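Task 17 of the worksheet. Students: predict the tertiary structure of the chain below and write it out as structure tokens. Keep your answer in the requested format; marks are given for formatting as well as content.
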Amino acid sequence: MSNIIDSKQLSELIMADDDFMQLSSAQDVYCPFEALKVARTEIRHSNFLADILSPNNTHGFGDIILKKFLEQVLGEVDEDILALNLHLTDLSNVEIRREWKNIDLFIRLPKAHINEDLVFAIEIKVESSESKGQLEKYRNIVNEAYPKAKVFFMFLTPTDHEGPSSDKWKHINFETVINAIESGLAVAHGHDTARIMVESYISMLRRRYVMSQELEELANKIWSKHRSALEFLIEKQPMRIDPICEAVFSEEFDQSINKRLAESASELELVVMSVNARSRREWKVRQWERFSDLGKASRTPNLLKIELVVLEKIIAIRLVLCPGDKEIRQKIYNLLDKKDVSIKRRKDKITDSWTRLYSKTIRSANDVSKMIESYENGESEAIEKSIIKLEKDIVSSIVPIILEVNQALEEGFKEGLIK
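Model answer:
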């Protein structure tokens, strides 16, 4: 992408384009949730939803928003009769918990269904993914605690978020929440301050997590007229993750890794590959280039590379099989598999594209978010501690997989499995 752009193109986009001004007006709205930096965290959503859904809280909505919410989610699972019964029932005895047994939002209506408890277990995912076995674990916990209850398991996410891994959980999105709350606001006014907060919450959800056809059409029109200017702005945009990248993408950090490799009684050395990505650092192992199967046959300096990816959603290390000769790539994979290296086992054959063989998460989205907030709040002591710990964890994760792969390559070379 070229960095050269006419200043007139930028001024036409920002100052003279009516569509851009309309889109900016829709996005540039003061939001207390954004100001407090709570929009990206699941527990903050569950806290706020639990508060406005609770009939006995001081917001003044009574049980109206709770009823509208339950009617919406029950409509998603074709429980219209049950929704009608709840509409005609006083729900002031509801029990609403946050983080009960780690479940984001837990709603229990005693004796609300044919003299049995009615339970809603709601897991909220904003910008993170479910962990392995998480939903099955939660389902077992609820069923064990309430074996006779009628239970609904709900997986609440933004519109384009990946759905639940289990078909026992119903996938609903924030548009359902918006529709429920707006229906409640149309019936119950509530206290003025509470209403302002709820309306701000709805506005934030729409901007961040719900697709708007009108805004999409505006965006398409703007891109068709100002592609060069927009590509320039995207390339130059500051990223919230930049301070963390600057801390770990350094010569000192590379030296730390190589020092640890030397301490492990190996002669291996990581060399930075020539890349331009702001959030990715890629290394090759210099000594592996003596294996002709890994070096000369490949279109890249090495057929195997180590990646460090630093994103707002994840910080992770990866071992990647680079593009190159298909047969050689398959041979390398077979060797690592035979030597029982900690790689992803694949039933299918290796193709000629980038193939991730190993991945380890160093920091989750919530962890990264806390680090970014420390930077933004100027918490120098917390920043220093978190970076030192991050570098230590990255190095201690990279070194073992390098040594493991190296041993497999050395053995494979001696046995004639690779050249």
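Marker's comment: The chain has a mean pLDDT of 78. DSSP finds 15 helices and ten strands in the chain.
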